[in-house]
Design the sequence.
């Protein structure tokens, strides 16, 4: 089996096309169809990419030309068939998607998959969510018959290698989004996230992303204060579904903006991004909250412009106040560190790809050895059945056994002899010497053990 990938991502295709090629509830049906054409498959579909990772066995090539990193290349016939299937399954004309597709095979495919899994190919460099999304894609494919033993083994190597990249480099250590930066600050200020309460002031898109990152820490309670109850309820349902999927308990409370003075004392972490022209949280309100909290520390993040939280709040003891500018400065510095870490990660990916390919060769050799041994055993059993039949018919035992031994040895010697001749023919002296030595050595060993 050879690995190949075909797909589109945020660098090669506009969002309108990525939407048309995305997979959702149709994933099981897609896997069932695709797996009948390839030797294992996984479909990775996120907001930034739709990629088909497939095992292929046919080396033939077609004349169709495809673009790959602005270089026109011939697409192998097996991948052309996969691309045609993708267009047909999604109801999109092949000529419409062809200019946006990229294809990789063998080392390049493995390198690409590992880069994607490690977050090196993400819109946000080093983001950690993609590895979980790939795991989920493989799990769905396995559930619907798209992952056999060989392809499954390869996916496990990719997962292990991606973990090595993230463990051995600083690729994912520094926060480079506002949501991730907020969650990172929380872990630096508080020891036990599972005991924390998080107050979300406004349920817009920016705070929604912050809520996802903070909720992922496993906080105990989330309070959503919003003008529109419907939007607050929708976000609450979303966060509850996340907690349930992760096997965590989560308390949720909805409130109005007018209730902020009452609910603020409950909050260890506050993220505010309302778009209001008025200050929502002032010094007096925070002082009162601190008094009720007996001056337990509070992290307040103000992502709004104009600001929701009075700037003087940052001067209070036991309060950590960060504005959107503060976080942007942190993110800018962290991005530079991530880019440096990415250089190290790319080098490590190259090493890991070489190691996985070496292991794949060992796996392939084992498969060949198994097949050869099975063939030899089947042939020997067949000859033995013939010999037994001859003996039952009363034929001379010595003649039958001599014929049996001759036919077995002649057949089993044929392939090694041909290998020696070919090694000599192509001038591969090292292989010739190694094969000859191993065959003679194994013969001497078997004689000495008798």
Sequence:
């Amino acid at each position: 089996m050879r690995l190949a990938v075909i797909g589109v991502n945020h660098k090669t295709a506009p969002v309108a096309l990525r939407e048309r090629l995305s997979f959702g509830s149709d994933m099981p049906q897609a896997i069932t169809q695709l797996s009948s054409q390839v030797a294992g498959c996984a479909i990775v579909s996120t907001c930034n990419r739709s990629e088909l990772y497939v095992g292929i066995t046919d080396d033939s090539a077609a004349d169709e030309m495809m673009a790959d990193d602005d270089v026109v290349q011939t697409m192998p016939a097996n991948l052309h068939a996969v691309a045609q299937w993708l267009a047909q399954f999604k109801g999109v004309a092949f000529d419409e998607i062809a200019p946006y597709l990229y294809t990789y095979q063998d080392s390049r495919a493995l390198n690409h998959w590992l880069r994607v899994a490690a977050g090196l190919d993400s819109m946000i460099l080093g983001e950690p969510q993609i590895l979980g999304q790939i795991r989920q894609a493989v799990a769905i494919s396995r559930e619907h018959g798209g992952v056999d033993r060989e392809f499954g083994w390869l996916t496990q190597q990719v997962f292990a290698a991606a973990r090595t990249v993230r463990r051995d480099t600083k690729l994912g250590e520094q926060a480079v989004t506002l949501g991730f930066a907020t969650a990172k600050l929380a872990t630096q200020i508080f020891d036990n996230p599972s005991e924390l309460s998080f107050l979300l002031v406004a349920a817009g898109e920016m705070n929604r992303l912050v809520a996802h990152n903070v909720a992922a820490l496993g906080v105990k309670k989330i309070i959503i204060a919003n003008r529109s109850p419907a939007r607050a309820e929708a976000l609450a349902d979303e966060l509850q579904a996340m907690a349930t999927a992760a096997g965590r308990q989560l308390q949720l409370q909805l409130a109005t903006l007018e209730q902020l003075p009452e609910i603020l004392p409950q909050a260890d972490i506050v993220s505010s991004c309302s778009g209001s022209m008025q200050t929502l949280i002032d010094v007096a309100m925070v002082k009162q909250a601190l008094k009720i909290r007996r001056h337990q520390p509070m992290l307040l993040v103000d992502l709004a412009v104009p600001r929701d939280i009075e700037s003087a709040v940052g001067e209070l003891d036991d309060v950590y106040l960060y504005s959107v500018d503060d976080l942007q400065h942190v993110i800018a510095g962290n991005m530079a560190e991530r880019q440096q870490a990415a250089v190290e990660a790319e080098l490590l990916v190259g090493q890991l790809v070489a190691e996985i390919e070496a292991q794949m060769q060992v796996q392939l050799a084992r498969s060949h050895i198994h097949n050869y041994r099975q063939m030899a055993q089947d042939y020997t059993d067949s000859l033995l059945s013939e010999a037994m039949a001859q003996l039952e018919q009363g034929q001379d035992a010595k003649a039958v056994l001599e014929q049996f031994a001759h036919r077995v040895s002649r057949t089993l010697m044929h392939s090694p002899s041909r290998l020696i001749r070919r090694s000599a023919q192509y001038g591969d002296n090292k292989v010739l010497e190694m094969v000859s030595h191993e065959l003679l050595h194994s013969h001497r060993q078997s004689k000495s053990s008798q």
Q: What stands out?
A: The chain has a mean pLDDT of 87. The chain has 15 helices and twelve strands. The first helix runs from residue 15 to 20. The CA atoms of residues 2 and 56 lie 5 Å apart.
